[in-house]
User: What shape does this take?
Amino acid sequence: MSAFTQHIFICGNVRTPGHKRGCCDPEGHQALREAFKNELKNAGCGPLARANHAGCLEQCEHGPTVVIYPQGVWYGHVRLEDVSRIVAKTVVGGEILSDLVIPDSCLNNPACPHRKAPGEVPTA
Ligand code: FES
Ligand SMILES: [Zn+2]
Assistant: This one.
């Protein structure tokens, strides 16, 4: 059997309402992961690309967050309606979607302008 070629990790972390960092899946239904699973199947990506449930990916302020390996492409604020485009363009086509990509300057950066201090309103 062939090895997997791509993994899509979809944050499904649930936090209590009002948590200062928010969370990617407040409903806890894994709807985004299910959408990726279905779309991969529909696109014929079959057993070679997997949509994996992930815990917090530490990019909460940009969530819902998705990361695709081996490309290492990080997408933020991913909505259900973005899923088919991500599969077609990025998973199949290798293209990075500039409107969804989380900038390098935000990744793992505690000083990211989207992180808010307690009581502060985030900038985006
Ligand atoms: S809760 Fe999704 S990245 Fe932290
Ligand atoms: Zn940021």
In short: The chain is about 20% helix and 15% strand.
